[in-house]
Amino acid sequence: MSKPTTLYDKIWNDHLVHEAEDGTSLIYIDRHLVHEVTSPQAFEGLRVSGRKVRAPEKTLAVVDHNVPTSDRSKPNPDPESAEQIAVLAENAKHFGIEYFNEFDRRQGIVHVIGPEQGFTLPGTTVVCGDSHTSTHGAFGALAHGIGTSEVEHVLATQTLIQKKAKNMRVVVDGKLPDGVTGKDIILSIIGEIGTAGGTGYVLEYAGGAIRALSMEGRMTVCNMSIEGGARAGLIAPDQTAYEFLKGRPKSPKGAAWDAAVRYWESLRSDDGAHFDREIRLDAAKLPPIVTWGTSPEDVASITGSVPDPDKIADEAQRLSKQRALNYMGLTAGTKITDIKLDRVFIGSCTNGRIEDLRAAAKIAAGKTVNANVYAMIVPGSGIVKEQAEAEGLDKIFIKAGFDWREPGCSMCLAMNPDKLKPEERCASTSNRNFEGRQGFKGRTHLVSPAMAAAAAIAGHFVDIREWH
Ligand SMILES: CC(C)[C@H](C(=O)O)[C@@H](O)C(=O)O
Ligand code: SF4
User: H-type helices in 265-305, by residue range?
Assistant: First the structure.
């Protein structure tokens, strides 16, 4: 019998084109997603060297970061954004790449539309000039975020230069309590291993609590692998993944589907496969999580308080956490439930999918957004928006006083007009809480969609396990 291998090893081996003696390898890329922020120089490079896109049919472009989330029939208020959007449209046309523009009903955040279209498939290698490409690993795809020069390399050759990463398994067993979600799982993991804990590793999430997650929940977990420093995150595909993908526009059909499923069934880590590191978590013990600082590792339980950085022994660490507290305008010892909000953002490639909107709507139904809060809901894609509207979720939100917007990255990173003002405090379902991430001097607390919706209504954080 051959040596037991991990899921990562299998996908890697199936795509390896060449390996040099020092381990530098060339891997074949099956799927390339392109957005407007990291592609202009890559296309320019192709033009300068007179190259074509090697496999346009394996490339899909969409505009997401710069689009306004207000009425798009009006001119874009930001000329720089408008220019970046126009450049992508022109490049897609020139190089013969399929492109979802800002008026296309399929437009949305790149990591939402890939799976939604069945472009992302188990066992494939997926790249995008975007760090949260790890999202696609939820389907058992090896998905790497790449830089602009690599985008050019993939466009030209359909291959990527990589060194093999180490394997880490994250086992999450037990049953998640009601009100605790995939977002709380991944924030807890990052709280545990730190933002550098995954450096040099591809993480495979396993265990009963991961298996029990929907594809949306799994994507949330894999999405934030990168916040834990990892190169990618993976979950072995199973019936849940196949059901999500079946019948999607770009999924295989008929006999090709059956053959694909037979191959996908082989995509799991063998018993006895070697992992360089393994960590374990009991889902039953997890509370809803709220971040208090300026790093995703700064996690607190909803029942907890803002920690006291003065108690940290390591000086660099102490200074950095003191600075975070200062930036966030918080005092050590403040109960998390006493933190008041000015803004709420529900959306992003972490938590802007239909299940996320359903969870938020369930909390918002029949309630009213607090008078001190401006809360916005930004669906992850046009298809998510349509689905939500078909289910009447938009009406629930609008009636409660939420602002119902057009799809895009929006205030996840504030590259469009959706921004926090200095010192505004926001409960956000996104994945990054760095200084200035949602606007200059803006203060971000990362939470799950239900926690964000409840905070919008109460005006402060609340424990949704006690929501009624
Ligand atoms: C703009 C893009 C390069 C960036 C990324 O790579 O992640 C963005 O999506 C983000 O979330 O910060
Ligand atoms: S939603 Fe946020 S994290 Fe995701 S791709 Fe857009 S900017 Fe990056």
Answer: none
